Amino acid sequence: MADFPRLRYRRSPRRGAVLAGGGRLHGLDSVIETPPQTRSPTARLALSLLQSTTSRSGRTPGVQTPPSGDGEHHTRYSQLVVDITGLRSGWVITQPNAQHDAAKLLHPDDLRLSREIVSWCHRVAGDPLPPSAVPGATLRQRRVLASLGGLAAALTEAATLDTNTWDRWPHAVASWAKSAPRPPLPLVERARAAIEARGQTDILAQLYERIVAGPNRRHLGTFFTPPAVLDYMIKRTKQVLSDEPNVVIDPGAGVGAFTEGALHHWPTSQINAVDVNIVTLGLLAARCAVLNSPNQPTFIHGDYLEWVTKIESDSLKSKLIIGNPPYTRHQLLDRKTKEVAHAASGPLCPNGQAGLSTHFLAATLRVLGPRDTICFLLPANWLETRYAREVRKHLWELRNRAVQIHAFPHEAVIFPSAQVSAMIIIVGPETGKSQNLSYFSVTQGKDLNFQVTRLAHTQRKVICPATFTVQALSGTSTSSQKSDAPQTPLSSIAVVRRGVATGDNEFFLRRDSEVADLPEESYVPALPTLRNVPEQDLTPTAHRLLGVSGVRRWLLRLDNIHTENEAVQALIGEGKRKGTPDRYLCRTRTPWYAVERTPIPDILIAPMTKTRFRVVQNLAGATPTNSIYGITLIRRTDAVESARELVEWLRCDDGQQALLSIARRHSDGLFKLEPRALANLNVPIQ
């Protein structure tokens, strides 16, 4: 294997992701491209490295100009860092520190086959599938998906002579397959061979990903499980099971990675594959026909959240619910889906901010029988968020079941087309004694072997912690928290809150020149962002320099001003003309320009960072906007001196480590503080 330097590119919003080449290179499930005229010297260097490695390995990477159209999946990362590595077996593109198991090793033969099948689907595409069949897909994508049914039908017809096969398929799925034209026999045979090979590449998942772009897959949360992660989940699940389950359920089955795994590892179990997407369910049915397992699954076309509530509990049978629920954020759920989700989740997801994957977990927990087991691959954010608090409490109360959390590093690329931190939750069957809740860190080295470290093994004898982070479950904290100095929650000495939400910063935040003719009492010092502060503290001089540089440093206070003033009247008229009174926050206020009044904070802190949190003492008395958190000391005696001591501690290494330990970490390496977590932070007191 030949390794080359990592090369950094930024995506142009009009030109797609920038990668050396002037064409495209298929890696993972992405098509990464750049027009020839955009090649930088660095890009040309990367291309030469790529070509030279290709010549040495005897392989051709297949760099070529892609056809236009939304059937091609363009990488949409705001920033992509890639390793270009020559492999004898093909090509792989990974992000920095990516786990090698999460990267699919795409053999050139598989790439060529998927490209030819998709090209055939484009050529014969006719009437599209209805939007309800594959929500989120575009019209063109639904035309191509309609013709893909011919491949599913041809694979099935070639694999079996059983005339009852179509009767076992859901009606909508069978109609999709039987009504489509059949591909040429050579393509069918090559697809069958690729399915039977069961390699690191899933040809059916690759086909779907090539047709439906990543952003369009988010509506249904369709992101397929890497084979190595699947194997790990099955291995860990078998360690929890006492015997072979009577029933295996694959929720959101997709193209069937977990269903195929169940056929192999639990061949005598009844297997139910549930999915709302007729295309992925049809591809799964075709896969099972090709594999010709004597134990054929039951294919269920429908919403798992509706279906699971109808399962009858049977204490004599054991069920294993294992899978990768859809990664769909609540903003993408329509009203009907939300109603179904809330009905299935009940009190475990009481508000409307939970994503679909959290609803799948909650609904499954509600119907869990005494001998049942869960193993889900989920986004990691539910471990900390407020909307999943009742789910965590429920898991905490299941004291006679083993509960395991297997967390991948935040920088791990589990799903290359979705930037999300991933984890695995395993809930075992009931036992006759109390079980622990365990937290494992799962990493993988270049040898492709998982390295598992148990970081917490908690006896659930106390109340449920606020989060399921490793710090909360293990009871550990930063070095500062372990010191002998007396400590107290920040909320006992200060009030923490977000800055002011104006509803229209462009109108309510003004530059020096824009307030020159206004009465002095009609505006107050403000700060829109800490990035503008050049010094460690916001002094009056530093605030004045912001004005010199053109920063909007004044917040309008018009509600207590006589509106007869001509300048004020003109300003209110300006706001009306631009529609400010119709903005959401503004139309809830009376009058619309009455911005909330809050105490001036002593300390300002930026809630997001990738390295160190910015902490500033507010000596200028500025009102921050809601992109900044404010800390206002309760005791006003010697407030300036007390704020200075607190600022110095928050800036030091111990303070920064304490802040990082309570922050939520996103998949792009960004740490984010929440006001409640900051208020609960233990700080040293004199």
TrEMBL record:
Keywords: Methyltransferase, S-adenosyl-L-methionine, Transferase. One of its GO terms (biological process) is methylation. One of its GO terms (molecular function) is methyltransferase activity. Residues 484-684 form the Type II methyltransferase M.Eco57I C-terminal domain. Gene3D superfamilies: Vaccinia Virus protein VP39. SUPFAM superfamilies: S-adenosyl-L-methionine-dependent methyltransferases (SSF53335). Residues 313-408 form the Type II methyltransferase M.TaqI-like domain. It catalyses: a 2'-deoxyadenosine in DNA + S-adenosyl-L-methionine = an N(6)-methyl-2'-deoxyadenosine in DNA + S-adenosyl-L-homocysteine + H(+). The keyword S-adenosyl-L-methionine applies. InterPro entries: DNA_methylase_N6_adenine_CS, M_Eco57I_C, MethylTrfase_TaqI-like_dom, N4_N6_ade-DNA_methylase, SAM-dependent_MTases_sf. Its EC number is 2.1.1.72. Residues 51-75 are annotated as: Disordered. Residues 51-67 have a biased composition (Polar residues). It is an enzyme of class 2 (transferase). Belongs to the N(4)/N(6)-methyltransferase family. This is site-specific DNA-methyltransferase (adenine-specific). It comes from Streptomyces galilaeus. The lineage of its organism: Bacteria, Bacillati, Actinomycetota, Actinomycetes, Kitasatosporales.
